[in-house]
Amino acid sequence: MSVQIFLLGKLSGLEEFLLSPATEENATGVLAGRAQWAALLTEVLPRGILAELGLSPLLLGTSGGGQFLIVLPEEFLTRAETLLSAAKADIFARSASRLHLVWAWTENLGDWSLVRKRLYTGLNCALGTPLAVPLPQLGVEQNFANFSEAFREASSASWSPDQPGAVTVDAGTHTWRLGAGPDDIHLARHTALNEEGTQPATPAELASRAEGGSRWGVLRGDVDNFGFRLRNCADVEEYLRLSRLMKQFFAGEIELACTALPELWRKVTILYTGGDDFAVYGSWDALLRLAGEFHRLFHLFAGEGLKHLDGPEAKTISMALALAPDRDTPFPYVYEESGRLLENAKSEDKDCIQLFGRTVDWKQVHRAAGLREGLIRLIRDFRVPPGFLTEFTGFYREKPHAAALAESRAPGGRPWRYHRRIGLALGSRSGREFDKLRHSITQELIGGSAQHVRLRPAGRVAVEWARLSIEAETNV
C-alpha cells in the first residue's frame, strides 16, 4: 500500500524581493507585478505539479499567499521534486536571484501535530540552506511592470513545465479559471483607473481624489496570531479548512468592499491579498474608510466562522496606515513604512491600528471619528481659526523618558494648564452650544481625574484626522 506524503512549499525572501530596487520608472507597477506574480505562482505551481503527475486536483491542500501544501503518493515524490527543482531555478532567475523556492516533505504517519512539526522542521532547515540546490548565475529580472495589468481583466492563468516559474494569461500547458468558484483561483485585483479609464491611476492621481488634503498612502493588515492558531489545529482537516477559509475571505471581501462602496472604487487599488494579510494603496480618506469597513467584516467573519474555536487567536486583525510625505514619494518607501508600522502595532497590542503616529484600538478609532467631527464643527460652524489644531498637536509631542517620568510625578492641578491652553486656543464665543462642544472636546482630549492628566491617544488621531480633512480649505 502506497504511503501518503505531505509536501509543503514556500517562497523565501518575499518581502525583500518586493522592496528590491527597480530599474523601471514605474516603481508602483513593478511592486504590484511582483506581488501578484508571487501570489499566482504559489497557486498555479502546485496545481501544475499535480496535473503533470496525472494526479487528482483534490490532492491540493492549500495554495497562494507565498506557500502551498499538496498530498502525493510516495511513488510520485521523486518526479515532484524534479519539477520543484526546475521551478526553483527558474524563480531564482526571474527574480534576479532574490527569491528562493524551498520545500519539505514527510510521510502521513502519526498524529497531525507530529506530522506538522516534522514538516516545519524540514522547511526551517531548507530556509537555512537555500543554496543547497545548484542555481543559475545572476539573471535579469523578469519585466513585472505590466504583469498585474495583464491579469486585470484576465479570466484564466496558465502554467507550463518547460517554464515552471512563469505565469501567463494563456498559451500554457495547463490553464485554470480565475474566479470565485470552489475550483477557481481567487485573485483580488480591483484597480482604480485614471480619468481616461485606460491605465491604473498613479498614487499622485489617487491623492488628488481625496477629500481634504491631497495625500496617498498604503494600508496593510495582518491577522493576529494566525500562525499560532494553525500550529494548534487538531488535525489536517481543520488546518486545511481554516487556511482556505481565511484566504477566500481576504480575497473576496477586500474586492467586494472596494467595488461595493461608491466612495472607494475610484480611490483604492489592491496590491495583494494573502493567506492572512493584505495590502492596498490609495487616497488617505478612502483607506481610512476601507480599514473601518474591513475590520467590521472581519469581526463578523470571525464571530461566525471561528466561533467554535477557543481562545482569541486568529479572531482579531491589526492594521497600519502609512501616508506619503508628499505626492511624489517613491512607492516602495511608503509600502515598507507601512510594514514597519504594522509590526510596531502588533508588538504593542492586538486588534488595533497604527494611525497618525499612534497605536489605537478600534473603540478609540470610533471615538477619534466623533472628536474629529467636533473639531471640524468648531471651524465651520463657530468660525474658530483652524490654527488651534496646531496648538492641540503640541500636547502630544514626544518627550524623553526622564521628562515623561517627571511629568507623571507632577503635583495636582496640572490638568488646568491644558484647560487654559485649550481656552486660549479656541478663544471666547458666546452660546450654550459652543460651551457644550468645547467641554466635550476637552474631556476627550485630556481625560483623567482632577489631579492627573492622561492624554488620550484618540485625541492625537482626531487632531491629525481633522487637519487632513480641512487641509484643502485652510493653510493648517
Give helix % range: 40-55%
User: Can you list the strand order of the major beta sheet?
Assistant: 9-10-8-11-12-13
- Low-pLDDT sequence parts: 399-413
User: How many strands?
Assistant: 13
Give the number of domains. Answer: 3
What percentage of amino acids are in beta strands? 15-25%
Spatial extent as radius of gyration: 26 Å
In the CATH hierarchy, the third-tier topology of the largest domain is known as Alpha-Beta Plaits
Indicate the structural class: alpha+beta
Q: What is the level 1 CATH name of the largest domain?
A: Alpha Beta
Order of helices and strands: EHHEEHEHHEEEHEHHEEHEHEEHHHHHH
* Mean pLDDT rating: 87
Looking at the overall shape, the CATH architecture of the largest domain is: 2-Layer Sandwich
Main beta sheet strand tally, sense and closure = 6 strands, mixed
Structure description:
The chain has 476 residues and is α+β, with helices and mostly antiparallel strands. 46% of the residues lie in helices and 16% in strands. It is built from 16 helices and 13 strands. The strands form three sheets. A six-stranded mixed beta sheet has the order 9-10-8-11-12-13, sandwiched between helices. A four-stranded antiparallel beta sheet has the order 2-3-1-4, with helices on both faces. Strands 6-5-7 form a three-stranded antiparallel beta sheet. A hairpin with a 3-residue loop joins β9 and β10 (277-283). α8 packs antiparallel against α9 and α11 runs antiparallel to α15 (432-446). 41% of the residues are buried. The model is unreliable at 399-413 (pLDDT under 50).
